[in-house]
Amino acid sequence: MKKILLAVIIFVFSLTMVYAQCTKPVSVTITTPETPICLGTPLSLSATVLVSGTSQNGAFTFSWIKNSVAVTASAPITIPANTVTAVPMYTGITGAFTDAGTYTLRVEDGNAGNASCYTEANFILTVHETVTAGSIVSAQTICSGENPAAFTSIAAATGGTGIYSYVWEKSMNGAAYADISPAVAAETFDEGVVNNNGTKPMTIDYRRKATSGICPQVVTAPVRITVNPAVIAGVVSADQTICSEGDPAAFTVTTAPAGGTGVYTYQWEIATAGSGPYTNIAAATAATYDAPSGITGTTYYRRADASGTCATAHTNLITVTVQPAVLPGIISADQTICISTVPSPLMGTAITGGSENSAATYMWESSTAGFAWTDVTGENTKDYSPQALTADTYFRRKDTKGICPSVTSNIIKITVDPEIVTPVITGDQTICAGTAPNPIGGPPVSGGSVATPMYIWEASRIGGSGWVVIQGATSKDYHPGILIADMYYRRIDTKGVCKPATSNIVKITVPTPVDISSDKTVICKNGRVTFTATVRNGDPDPMFEWFINDISQGTPSSSPEFSTTNILSSTDKIQVILTSNTTGCSASAWSYIHVSSGITPGTISSDQTICYNTSPNQITQTPAQTDSYSTPTYTWETSASGITGSFYEIPGATTAAYNSTLPFTTDTYIRRVATDPRTSAPCNVSTSNTIKITVAPLYDPGAITGDETLCEGADAAIIENVTAASGGSLTGTGYLWWVSPDGISNWTAIAGATNAQYLPWKITQTTYYKRESYNNCSYTNPYSNIVAKTVISCNSFSTAISGPNPIIPGQQNAVYRVPNQTGFRYEWSITGGTIISGQNTNTVTVDWDAATGNTLARTTIPSYAISVTETNPDGQKKTTTATINTVATSIVQSLAQSGIKLFPNPTAAWFSIEMPESNVEVSYEILDLTGVLVASGSFTSTGSDQKIAADFGAGMYQVVLTYNDTVTTARLSKVQ
């Protein structure tokens, strides 16, 4: 048993010793990347080996094995120790599908195939089928601006790994292909809108590149898109203007169309408006077009140019403007005139029809026979005023407007009559009073037209004038009635339109021995008038009896005068009968006198209410009326009370209406006095109604107060209403507050601030406020004084007290303040005065004591003082004191005591000071309510007012006047 065991041990050891005697390679590496190859692509396999020592079996060997089958014989290889050494390449891979498999490189110490002596490396080879690109569709022809149909794949790519990537590329007009950017990696592709901005067709070739694995990239066959340029319509001509139913000229081509395929079709279109709609014209498919005649309205034409599939383009419009035919005007009217006279103007209707954009032109024509017309030079307006004519003449008017033929109006005739020959009548006669003369007359009318002759007889007492038509005397002869005084006669002949002809004058003499005259021509009813009878024939001893309306006014008297107050009417007849004591003959005469009913005053209107210191509107009127045929004269009167007897005449006011330019400050009554210059008293004067001019009180915009200095962000005190707006028209009074950053300009209305007082919001910078008040009379003075809210940075106790200093003894409502600081408490004390309001606030109002003793005597005023103690939030206190000085000791008088006048108050731009005495040297100072001097000056009084400019802001001010060692103070309100 021991022998057997020993034998086995020896065998195993011997066997181990045999196989353990080799140097196994440390590593074998195939360096060719393990990637698939494409069918037909050869591949060589490279490798390296590393050993740690020399071969113990004679040599190292290598062999290439495919799928466990050696494809190369084992061959020796020299491998230095510890050096990476290249193994001869395997080149048997040709790219056939059969080349696929697992390739193994074995390097061995020896060639016994002892696994303990060799090291292997594997390489797995995959062979892919060659990639085919597939195919895409489809070729297209489009027009510029269109979107071609998307390119689709009708055959997918094959081969390779079965996974493909695509890239699309294109070629423009046969140029080199370039990838489409941004890159398109899809199997299909939609190019989108394609534009061709040229004038010729453009080609774009598209193809798809396919890649799969390591196989070479392949491309499809190209697909071509032909892009025709957009059709550019041609230019046709030309616009025309024709007359209604005319024939327009043929339309021609100015510029041929472009774009598209280069081959064009045409269609002419028509519309009655430039904006369309347009309809095709049948058979109008040529490049040019000749529109038919007979067009009655403005018509628009265009040509539609088409080419291929591109959108049709339209040419410019051709406008055939059709002017309506000119319609003949109507002129009027036939006339008959006298020879060498000017006829009435010939009036015509305006042209109708023709062009709306053309001026109407007229030409008048004349003819002496109704034909063979001649233009009237220079007569080219709608109407015509012929010159004087001496023969029958015909007229017509030729009208033109635009291009349509001119037309002529109707014809009118002006018939010219010969003048009427001056008639001659007979004859002068002398008759006795109370008898009738023989008939007078003459031959019939000579001249004139063929119309019936007409006669008018006129009579006059004086012959040169005063002719009166004799009613009913219309024959060529006339037989006067009984006459008692001289009378003149004449005949007026009329025949047609010529001026009537007046005959010679025939006088019938009736000796009249007496005439009547009066000392007045116009009297009032029952006014006294004296008549005087004058004897013509010098009768030495006549007797006179006077009658009124045939009623005797007394027995005959030798006095030729008659005085009476019994004339009541202008129709009252005054007659005197003269009886001659020498011849026994009697004669009479009569007369009339105008009796005036008196002047009526007319009316004036009307009552007015005006603002203070303004002028009223013009006082309108109806004129006074007289019956004396004279023009009334006027004076105007005014009164402060309207009471009878208080009126006085207004100088220079002598017209029928009255317009005062002077301003009114008090209610005033006004009336007008009218006078008849031809009528005697008392009915020659009359007074109109009285109107009242009511003057509203002087408008005062009121005053506000609220100046203060406060800390930034602190609550501002309310701006109080000191005095409300007053005066003016008391209806519709309202308020509006304004704010400004500087108190000078940049004023802005505060929305909603319409009360008499105003509380500002927290303010962070110095701000100024004023109040506008308004009613019907506020336009001259609408603004109050200005209030300042002064903002400071508050971090410490006050160092001074602001307010009036110096003061006038007895000065009231003086305001003093320190900054209003959050958390501070204030306590005021005063010497020589009384705190009216504001104790325990940062602002107090003080009434200073007046001087003691007689105010008219010289006094010495002690100093005044005011102090404030501030306590901060930490309880610390500080007292600030201001010594208040006074003006120099003088006599102090009020405005009333002094007799000085200061006006107007309130004022806007100026105010006046009127001293009661002349030659007084006066100096003045104007201070605001805080005591700041805003203006000063001096003047010598003259007894009249001294005007002083108010060149300072709106607000309340104190005016201090110093004169003759006397001081007078007054309050002044300045408004905007």
UniProtKB/TrEMBL annotation:
<feature type="domain" description="Ig-like">
    <location>
        <begin position="25"/>
        <end position="132"/>
    </location>
</feature>
<keyword id="KW-0732">Signal</keyword>
<protein>
    <submittedName>
        <fullName>CHU large protein uncharacterized</fullName>
    </submittedName>
</protein>
<dbReference type="InterPro" id="IPR026444">
    <property type="entry name" value="Secre_tail"/>
</dbReference>
<dbReference type="InterPro" id="IPR007110">
    <property type="entry name" value="Ig-like_dom"/>
</dbReference>
<feature type="signal peptide">
    <location>
        <begin position="1"/>
        <end position="20"/>
    </location>
</feature>
